[in-house]
Amino acid sequence: MKELCIIVVDTETSGLYPGTHGLVGIGAVLFTDNTDTFSVRCRVEEYNEISKIAQTVNGLSEEEMRSTEYMSAVDAYNKFIEWATSHGGQLILAGHNIRFDYNFLRHVSEQPGALPWPFGYRTLDIHTVVLMATGRSLSGRDAAISSEYLLSPSRIKRFAVRLKAGLCCGHCRVTR
User: Fold this and answer.
1) Which fold has domain 4-124?
2) pTM listed for this prediction
3) Which of 3, 90, 111, 144 is the most buried (most CB within 10 A)?
């Protein structure tokens, strides 16, 4: 069985709906080594919409999001896949509300010129892990603080050891 390789990813987008809206950027960190990071900015294509809320969240104007000085979403995705697959192992995506990021990346993976999708269907949602570990849900500032706390080197090492042992939070078994 291949070693698990968990990639914590966060996408910035021009809205909520893959296809309708586009990628603005991709950021990632290797779960077991928070010094191994990836970050790329890309342009939103003319056929993608840009919501006013996304402009506020990202702190970018429509002109900045569409700037041709940045690479296409497919090129950004390809660079991300090259970085992720360079680590070897069974790749798993993790993040806060990971299905959002998964859906945007998966949409780009289906575009012409995109590298094959190397991730399985299983994902690891940080919000769910915190809920399981603490018994409470995250909102607002707590979510950001807890994500930083979870991604601290000592927490990553302890959580990685639990995953390798087949334990997620000490109360249940992870099936691989």
Assistant:
1) Nucleotidyltransferase; domain 5 (3.30.420)
2) 0.77
3) 90
